Amino acid sequence: MKILVVGGAGYIGSHVCKSFIENGDEVTVFDNFSSGLKENLQAGAKCFEGDILQEKELHAVCSENKFEGIIHLAALKAAGESMEIPEIYAKNNISGAINLLNAAVAYNIPHFVFSSTAAVYGEPKYLPVDEKHPTNPENFYGYTKLATENMLNWYDKLKNISFASLRYFNAAGYAADSSITGLEKSPQNLLPVVMETACGIRKKMQVFGETYLTEDGTCIRDYVHVSDLAQAHVQALSYLQRTGTSFTVNLGSEQGASVMEIINMAESITGKTINYEITGKRPGDATKLLASSSLAKRLLGWEPKYSDINCLVQTTWKAYRHHFPDGDK
Question: What tens digit of pLDDT does each residue of 192-222 get?
Fold first, then answer.
């Protein structure tokens, strides 16, 4: 298939491109490189530098190719930042998605795979969280993703664009074969922050709260390896091509790891002391968040292969050692 991967030079996007190329698909990357890295571009992928907010640039790439699917991974994703500058998130995440959907209509691109998030659920009412769980985002980032999901439903009904909405839980890890090593810019997720502390980029990290009702007092999250996420995109597009039926699924490992478990595993693998300080709890942080991914397994045959905590930490450390061979800044 000929596929447009929007945000294909990013952390998740580059792994998605790798999986599609290994599947034998023809990949074109569309990226403005605001967070994506040219070093993450995969051999065999074409690249078009452009921005989803610039309709002329989108139309230029779509008019030159007969794409059969769009993979949309170009949203801004920092939940805290979205509460401070919602206008930027509305413009990029909602207006940008509208531009992409309109390009799909204009150029008869029938399938759309959307990078969504577990943030659409908000505070969990029950665990594990399945797709029937109420959607009640607690940050503006989650709202923009839910708004895009709602638009996809309408474009499916009105314009026959079939879509897959993939609700990621906590993406982590790097390609096991070390083929992707470009590090995220200004990361805010736990594992990259832990690695920056191990490498001396940060003097210390913060642990937000130690009095949660968990075994070690720190929050528990469902971490899913980025390569497992990438494979789900290949399977999702294949499903849309076969059936033309839209769907929404969770993508998580269904296993929980606490903040301190991640830190302890990182110390064991890196041989470094992870300096941290306990600070106050953050508003909106759930004690525990676990996915039910049974629907993705049933519909797509998806099975996470790399999402155990050891593999997540090990592959991330290999990527950081590529840039910091001695493990120090």
Answer: 999 999 999 999 999 999 999 999 999 999 9
How many CB atoms are located within 10 Å of the residue 85 CB?
A: 13
* Residue-range domain boundaries for the chain: 2-172+224-251, 190-222+254-323
pTM, two decimals, is 0.96
Query: Is residue 270 within 8 Å of residue 314, measured between CB atoms?
Result: no
Say if 2-172+224-251 and 190-222+254-323 have the same CATH topology: no
Quickly state the pLDDT bin for 185 (edges 50, 70, 90).
confident
Architecture of domain 2-172+224-251: 3-Layer(aba) Sandwich (3.40)
Residue 255: count of CB within 10 angstroms of its CB? 15
Distance between CA atoms of residues 33 and 50, nearest Å: 8
Catalytic residue among 11, 121, 141, 320: 141
Cα distances (angstroms) measured from residue 294 to each of 116, 118, 129, 133: 17, 15, 11, 14
The tokens of 295 are what?
């629907």
Please tell me the distance from the alpha carbon of residue 165 to that of residue 156, in angstroms, as a whole number. Answer: 12
Is 155 among the residues known to form the active site? no
What fold is seen in the domain 190-222+254-323? UDP-galactose 4-epimerase; domain 1 (3.90.25)
- Annotate 238-251 with b (16+ C-beta within 10 A) or e (fewer): bbbeeeeebbbbbb
Report DSSP state, residue 91: I
Q: What is the largest CA-CA distance in the chain?
A: 56
